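Worked example 2:
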Amino acid sequence: MKLIDINTWGRKSQYENFINYTNPTFSLTTRLDVTDLVTYCKSKDKSFFSCFLYILSKSVNSVPEMRTRIVDGKPVSYDVVNPSYVVIRPDEVIVTCMTEYGEDFTSFYNRSRQDIALKKSSVSEGPFESHDRSDVIYISCIPWMDLVSVINPYNFNNVEQSSIPRITWGKFTKNGFGRYEMGFDISVHHALIDGYQVTKVVAKMSKMLNDVNTYLGD
């Protein structure tokens, strides 16, 4: 973690403006073409969720602004951020799970499958947010319905927690052209991130989704 010097920071004025807002967050929703990834997962018998989680994590980490947070009231930058996501147990209780991000797809995929299996079999009644760290991305997946838009919960009394991006996606559905599309939403703190950086994440994801074999392996 590296402390950002506000006085030499390019977005000093934006930060000082939006940090004082009652609700300093904004959300952008788009649709992603996931046809090639759906085909890849079916042919390789792999989890769509874990494959997409890798693509998302790699794309987020490629944009420096998505790795900035507010810690102890000051902006900081992390070298790497990790996906913290929701898992639903067989009893339909949701629990949080985190997988450490790494560049190697196979290693990340295997870790995520192990982490999910462990959480699904857990009967612990510990705290819902099972970790106290800000080098994460909060992630939710709603695979039962087509996502059009989403409003994420925030605790604005906790500035550090509210500086963590929230990312949500829904069910992939086939459009009129036979392609699979999926609603995808990113919610971020405007003192740290602008719409332009969000579009860079989406552009990176789209590039990977259009060339799945290169990034995930044949």
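The longest strand covers residues 180-189. The helical segments are 12-18, 35-44, 48-61, 105-120, 159-162, 195-209, 212-216.
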